Amino acid sequence: LLFFVFSLSRSSVKLVAPLGCLVSRQKHTLPDLPYDYGALEPHINAEIMQLHHSKHHATYVNNLNVAEEKYKEALAKGDVTAQVSLQPALKFNGGGHINHTIFWTNLSPNGGGEPKGELMEAIKRDFGSFANFKEKLTAVSVGVQGSGWGWLGYNKEQGRLQIAACANQDPLQGTTGLIPLLGIDVWEHAYYLQYKNVRPDYLKAIWNVINWENISARYVSCKK
């Protein structure tokens, strides 16, 4: 079994060293938001953002650190059974940390509108138009059963953009191979306090705060 330590920053998410070498590492920490909790109002209110960031994301970070420590101990003991049993916790909490770290940067109080440059050209090439892309990603996100995420990703092998949905906190790249560009969180904790059970209303609103500069930068970077 081989497990990778996640290296996370505001602008990038990448895999670094294998944990199997048992090197010392720093614990994962909750990243700061690049804006205030109330900055996305009226589209996403401050109470949601505060709970989502300081409680939900923080829980994924804490649980990931605990799971990695247990995994490190299991590796040192050669306890394969324990290593296998820890995989769901590593996937769920690691995915939650990865997904939310991307999500916060995908949003901006100065967001909305449409992308420009290379990303817009790629969207028109792969989806026909921005309106068609927006409709498809919204539909996929609305259609997630239970909890999960709607994603715009980049298929590096095929050189094209692709829409996908992931259940729970499954990370896009780790489960589909697509490089994540834009993630839309459709867990109820992301919208219920404001939009109740009407997910389509939340998805209509979130397009007003999508940070196309961040997503465009991710697109340019993953093409290199």
Automatic annotation (TrEMBL):
Keywords in alphabetical order: Manganese, Metal-binding, Mitochondrion, Nitration, Oxidoreductase
Main location: mitochondrion
GO molecular-function term, one example from the UniProt record: manganese ion binding
Annotated EC: 1.15.1.1
Reaction(s) this enzyme catalyzes, per UniProt: 2 superoxide + 2 H(+) = H2O2 + O2
SUPFAM superfamilies on file: Fe,Mn superoxide dismutase (SOD), C-terminal domain, Fe,Mn superoxide dismutase (SOD), N-terminal domain
GO cellular component: mitochondrial matrix
Enzyme class: oxidoreductase
Family in the record: Belongs to the iron/manganese superoxide dismutase family.
Purpose: Destroys radicals which are normally produced within the cells and which are toxic to biological systems. Destroys superoxide anion radicals which are normally produced within the cells and which are toxic to biological systems.
Identification of the protein by name: Superoxide dismutase
Record lineage: Eukaryota, Metazoa, Chordata, Craniata, Vertebrata
This protein's encoding gene: Sod2
